[in-house]
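I'll show a typical protein example:
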Amino acid sequence: MRTILGIRFASALLVFLSLSACAGGERLDPAIPIGPPSMFNARPEFYNGKIIYVRGHLRTGREWFYTIFADSGKSDLFDKKLCMGLSDLLLISHYESKMDNRVVTIKGRFVNDADPMVMSCVHDNTLIIDEQFLKSRYGPEPR
């Protein structure tokens, strides 16, 4: 009887752990700074070249390109001073249905004055996206 209960418990625990891992995606590294774009934009020289997590409201589309905005409420949602451009627009476009108009967390390397083509913000601060993190957190690219 004990053996059967032990096997059932072990099986249930294995299923629970498997589901937890799938649901959560990649865990965030507590040693890496996390915050809204405004936090990193306030000290661009300090964060330049560093790996960060940006958490904010992602907005896509022709007029916004692919831009992540501060996550502090509707009042600043489209304030271009509080946003950050994202690199690899093709990669992000594959996740548009999962991420557009939602609060997301994206890992990458912060680059100060990166690319003047990212015109959706009043500055050129950009997040160079960590593709592995994106895939592990938001699933494989939809086909």
Summary: Residues 84 and 118 are 9 Å apart (CA to CA).
